[in-house]
Design brief:
By secondary structure, the chain is an alpha/beta fold. It has a single domain, classed as Fe-S hydro-lyase, tartrate dehydratase beta-type, catalytic domain (fumarase, Alpha-Beta Barrel). Helix content is about 25%, strand content about 30%. It has a five-stranded mixed β-barrel with strand order 2-3-4-5-7. α2 packs parallel to α3. The chain is globular and about 40 Å long. The two termini are about 25 Å apart.
């Protein structure tokens, strides 16, 4: 088990391999199909710093945050998967979700030394490992707003790294 603490360094990410099991601790961002296009717009408009967070070394968990807890959504939804390359270029080092990514996305992760990890849909388990929680932006989106949560040993498996995917045949 590889223990990861946010923010993640370039060196740590460079050492991760497909199939590695990891535990993620620290602060991570949570966003999915409703908010990620808004974040991309802020990156394009050079207003991302208005959020008061640094994307470099950050983790994005493809999830909504609700009273029921957090659990991964499918990362290969158009709005989510299309955000992976620009977010990686902006400094995100780990994308956390579920499902198989397209080969072009796997290549884009490699280009920016970012990785994708899959997390099983275990909302009850993650609830006991989730601490602080606050809305960072777009509160009008409710549970699909951009959240920052503090996590302790979130379990995941590296699904895509360095141009390879766990889903390869």
């Amino acid at each position: 088990m590889i223990e990861l603490t946010t923010p993640l360094s370039e060196e740590i990410v460079s050492g991760l391999q497909v199939g590695d099991t990891v535990e993620i601790s620290g602060y991570i961002l949570c966003g999915r199909d409703a908010v990620l296009p808004k974040i991309l717009e802020m990156i394009e408009n050079d207003t991302i710093e208005d959020l008061g967070i640094d994307l470099c070394g950050q983790v994005v968990f493809h999830t909504a945050v609700s009273p029921a807890g957090v659990g991964p959504t499918s990362s290969n939804k158009l709005e989510i998967e299309s955000s992976i390359e620009p977010l990686s270029k902006a400094g995100i080092k780990l994308h956390l979700g579920k499902g198989q990514l397209h080969s072009e996305t796997v290549e884009a992760l490699d280009k920016y030394n970012s990785v994708y990890a899959v997390i099983p849909p275990v909302t009850a388990l993650l609830g006991s490992k989730t601490g602080e929680c606050r809305v960072i932006a777009f509160p009008e989106l409710g549970m699909e707003a951009l959240y920052l949560i503090k996590v302790d040993k979130y379990p995941a498996i590296i699904g895509s790294a360095h141009g390879r995917s766990i889903y390869e045949k």
